[in-house]
Amino acid sequence: MSSGNEVAGTGRQAEEVFRLCGSEKTLIGQGLRAEVARGAIDSLAERVRGFFSDRQGGPRLVMGSLPFDRSRADYLFQPEAVAMGSRSEAGKAATLPDAVHCTIRPVPAPSAYRDAVAACLEMIAASAGDAEPLTKVVLSRSLELASSHAFDAGNLIRALGRDPSVTVFSTLLPAEADAPHPLLVGATPELLVSRKGAEVVSYPLAGSARRYGDPGADRRSAAVLEGSEKDRREHQAVVDAVFDALSPYCSELTAPDGTTLRPTASMWHLGTRIVGRLKDTETPVAELAGALHPTPAVCGLPRERAAGVIGQLEGYDRGFYAGAVGWADEKGDGEWYVSIRSARLAGRHATLYAGAGIVAGSDPAGETDETSAKFVALLSALGIDEHGRPLREHAA
Ligand SMILES: C=C(O[C@@H]1C=C(C(=O)O)C=C[C@H]1O)C(=O)O
Questions:
Q1: pTM here?
Q2: Chorismate-utilising enzyme C-terminal domain location, by residue (predicted)?
Q3: What are the CA-CA distances from residue 185 to residues 236, 267, 339, 340 (Å)?
Q4: Which of 193, 231, 268, 269 to mutate to test the pocket of ligand 1 (most atoms within 8 A of CB)?
């Protein structure tokens, strides 16, 4: 099997092909040097290892994204060059694009999403007596944007970077037919897994509430989330799944701070930072990502059954949304973030995605509102509301 393709004559030598901008550092990939042989997640670690053993030149790391569906092909590449930037630059230069002429089509319509949540709740209830009942399904919906101008990824990245609590990312997606490569751009609060030497970290989130400009309303929203039995249950299912997936690889695995509130600029979340030490430091980050993805934070429980319900009820293809975006180096270190709060940009078209975890006790209208709240980060960085109208602060 070939370990990948040399990318010749694409004119992408100096172009930014990847950016991952966390609180401490920004990793930038410039130019597309070679693509890693594409395949499903089960062979990811082997393909990454093969890539480095077959090729000598270029930076000793690959970057890119994994799709939501474990059986579909990922897209990883080696850049021509790697640069490190700083977060403050990103925030300072923020300018908002002119997105005044933008139409938005919700897919599915919010009413159809509510119906899907109701259907999902019936499936959860009906499975209660099964040997492995369906306990959680994350259902998402999308917004299809058509703008009068091509979407400017650089502007969007800078605007998203104003929220210091998220990791802003941008990565090239595989090219389709004769069209240029689309991009996946987003601002995720959720770490799937990182590995640095023997230390492994995962920071799952589940359980969400909208934030408000009014401090009293904002505090009340957080307090309701912290006190919600439904959200605690939804969160614990994800934490248990992360422990189950990582424990075979780790000699120690703990959640030192327990479950805490994790705010972004627009959302409150319940989060649990999980830290482990590898038994065998030869275990690469790609293998850990393969063991974890997709966690019940973006899929559900049991995993296969929930993925089947998602395919049946969502009615569209998630592609690289709710997958992972990140990098892996030759030593096996790397960082992979859950690719939520994201948009696929292709010229004048963008598709935004947001999902919510459905468990017994979920309310269809409440979950629909939660997805609307999750669109706010991307929409406000684009300067528009959910109907495509310019936000008041940016309107002429
Ligand atoms: C699926 C998304 O978010 C996930 C779902 C959450 C929830 O259901 O509470 C919280 C954080 C994320 O793990 C999304 O933002 O699209």
A1: 0.95
A2: 111-374
A3: 29, 18, 9, 9
A4: 269
